């Protein structure tokens, strides 16, 4: 499958060169790539379907994540796909077990429940364990029961079923699994594409008449959210911080105005001055960490602090693909990215300053231009995801629904 | 008339007598001046009118005008020109004529011409004589003027008010009424005939307003005293037409005498009260107050067009379009005579945004004032204190039109006005000017330059080796501190945080790097990224209010807040002359709006036309705030010329030191 390989390489290059901007676009590209990886994946006949697929996806995922470790959406989506594979596999297995159970239920019921000695009972028990391990949230018990088994379970179960019942055709199961996984991935694509609408639907619950809303950075989610409230005949005013070195606030303001919202563009430095007249701060996240912390466009932390100081609600909009199952450590530095100094300083104007230190080795002038900012969970009032509103301390639980514990470390 | 008398509120006005001379009729202001102590004396001496040696003392005697009018009616009619501003030292007679004529014609600048009349009237002997003999007449005339509704008092009050031009308007409007009253006397109708009427008026006045009465009495008193003094020197028994009033005079003085002291002391308390009132900071102009804005607009030199797309939240601040009026203004820099060219230049620099930094703006303004004062000559018959204050007020309102004043400039202006007010009376005009200029120079040296040096000395003790200092924007004090610390060999690193649209930090960065300091440059959004490695934050200030609120370049509050969140000490460096006794809670109520286009224009080459195309959409506004206020809780320490203090000590400094420095 050279075509898939080339696609992967191309995408990796794009990621590495930061050609794709925005976590949503990245997520969509990633998931589409993974879909083609899965659909082109040719499984050896006697091999374990699911584990083979997982391995393939993991391999590609590792490449993608390495290409842009800061873009957490890539990792999130890879984990989601892995999770889908496991789930589909499990549901297939449980379906098979259920079939067996139905067959066996007539003669030896207690064997299945208790410690049976028959093949069927054995496999059913293993499947049950596997089902527990995958369906359950990560817990001490699942860890103790042994996660590596879960990958091998389907194999034993399928082979057991195969050898025992002779009804299940290996190729049909393979096709079934792949088909189901691709269905699941398609659903994920759909979900990622539709997360704006899902979030925007809740706008009406949060924005009332005559509200003054501050936002910063350019986020499609925020745009849709505000416009949804506007369509419901709520009239309110939006302050947009321009987002200095990249001026994405100007883009957002332009689109808001095009949709008929009262928009005022302010400088980033005026955030503190204006916050006292603002009713709500709404921002779009770049990523939401498992502890409830938010990685957002640079300057967000300042706005969050100011909002906290003035007791203004700080609301973060995040599609589910932005929920990252990792706990951050020193995210300001480790999950950040420094952009070109030319956005801040005109090299032409400052050429005389820039090479001042060249003689002594270390340059005198350094320019820091980070892309992201980390907001600790204590400053966030509310997350609005496509599944509804959540508080920061609940995010870990929400995240557990989307990912399986085995994939946290890739 | 009675109805109009109300607002006269005479007693509040110091030296009112001076302005009563507007009454063409007769009474002179002079007497009061010479009487009322040093403050007034100076005015006479400095005025070019002092050409007549006796002028200072004699001037009081105002009766002569009547004579002139009646006598020289013919002469008046042929008087060459209605010269409103007499040449210093022409023949008194001629001036008299001119003013006379002006009175009749009714088209004049009343202040000038009328004031012009007074000294000639003093015509040496005549006046003195009449003064001594006919004290009553003088008082009478004072009353007369008081009884004239828009007469001198009202006007003087206006003149004291900051807007000189407004005063002129009022005066112009008064001219009518005055003319009416004057006419009879002018037409050589027997003075005696007018007298009774006046007396009647005076009486009715007495009955009605005790204040006015008291004032009139006092006036009379002064006149009498002055005249008595003058008498000593010269005396010519003349004043045939003053005689009729003799009787009247004789009736009055006895009653007046005992009151002198009380009225004087009262006056003093009034003036003290007034000073106190002046200390209270003026309420800022609210630009959503339609009538006041219209009024201001009528006076304005700079024709600002209001921007179409105003931000609703800031309607109380001026929101004008920028840059369109600069060319015309700069073209008539030397043709404009109401504003001194040095002041005009500073104003245009403000308008164009060439001057930035509070100290720079303040110093530029003070230098311009210095120049203006140097070139200033008191118009004849005018009092230097009053006229110069009026002039300065005119300049200040021009500067405000160009750009709202910073708090420190307001403080400096207050200082200057106080200096003018407190000029010793016995100074001649050149001396007064020299003393004012040197006072201004002292202010600049002591309050700004020396203060900065002291601050540097203090602040440098807070910089240790290996520290990482963060500063925001450009503050000249902070720059001095950093350079000095580098000079004395401290090893530290500087983080310069900058923000759009001014990008002043680049200026600082350039200077620091040129001197070999280790610098890191970043923008304000990244401040929480960089704050982790910072050990101290140094901030400049535009002003500090007495509730400890720091009023400074927009963004300062953000930096201080983030520093506070990271537990980094925030040190504010501010000269004490920038302290202000106002209080401020947020950045909305008092602020300044910059050019919105500066925000609309994005320097990025790739997507420059972001919002530019949407310019005319009424839904899209650009808000360019210039200042913000940092709550005191974010400030660890304020370094000022009085030492290093916590923000809670600001009101103490304002109260204890400001009074002594600026007001005494």
How would you summarize the topology of this molecule?
The complex is a heterodimer of chains A (410) and B (664).
Chain A: H1 2-16, H2 23-40, H3 49-67, H4 72-105, H5 109-113, H6 119-135, H7 140-145, H8 147-165, H9 170-200, H10 203-206, E1 212-216, H11 220-231, E2 237-241, H12 248-258, E3 262-266, H13 271-275, E4 280-284, E5 287-288, E6 294-297, H14 300-309, E7 314-317, H15 331-334, H16 351-354, E8 365-368, E9 372-375, E10 382-385, E11 388-390, H17 395-402
Parallel strand pairs in A: 1-2, 1-4, 2-3, 4-7, 7-10
Antiparallel strand pairs in A: 5-6, 6-9, 10-11
Chain B: H1 2-5, H2 16-20, H3 30-35, H4 38-46, H5 55-58, H6 64-71, H7 73-78, H8 92-105, H9 110-122, H10 125-133, H11 135-147, H12 152-160, H13 164-186, H14 191-208, H15 210-233, H16 246-251, H17 253-256, H18 259-279, H19 290-299, H20 326-331, H21 341-352, H22 358-374, H23 384-402, H24 407-421, H25 429-460, E1 467-472, H26 476-487, E2 492-498, H27 505-514, E3 518-523, H28 527-530, E4 536-540, E5 543-545, E6 550-553, H29 556-565, E7 570-573, E8 579-580, H30 597-600, E9 620-623, E10 627-630, E11 637-640, E12 643-645, H31 650-663
Helix pairs in contact in B: 8-9, 10-11, 10-15, 11-14, 11-15, 12-13, 14-15, 15-18, 21-22, 21-23, 22-24, 22-25, 23-24, 24-25, 25-26
What does this structure look like?
With 410 residues, chain A is an alpha/beta fold. Chain A has a domain at 196-407: Rossmann fold (3-Layer(aba) Sandwich), CATH 3.40.50. In chain A, 54% of the residues lie in helices and 11% in strands. Chain A has 17 helices and 11 strands. Chain A has helices spanning 2-16, 23-40, 49-67, 72-105, 109-113, 119-135, 140-145, 147-165, 170-200, 203-206, 220-231, 248-258, 271-275, 300-309, 331-334, 351-354, 395-402, and strands spanning 212-216, 237-241, 262-266, 280-284, 287-288, 294-297, 314-317, 365-368, 372-375, 382-385, 388-390. Chain A has a 7-stranded mixed β-sheet. A 3-stranded antiparallel β-sheet of chain A has the order 5-6-9, covered by helices on one side. In chain A, strand 10 (382-385) and strand 11 form a beta hairpin. In chain A, helix 2 (23-40) crosses helix 4. Chain A starts with a helix and ends in an 8-residue tail after the last helix. Mean pLDDT of chain A is 79; it is low at 107-121 and 149-168. Chain B has 664 residues and is of the alpha/beta class. Helix content of chain B is 54%, strand content 8%. Chain B contains 31 helices and 12 strands. In chain B, the strands form 2 sheets. Chain B has a 7-stranded mixed β-sheet with strand order 3-2-1-4-7-11-12. In chain B, strands 8-5-6-10 form a 4-stranded mixed β-sheet, with helices on both faces. The two termini of chain B are 41 Å apart. The interface between A and B is large, with 56 and 59 residues. Strand 3 (262-266) of chain A pairs parallel with strand 9 of chain B.
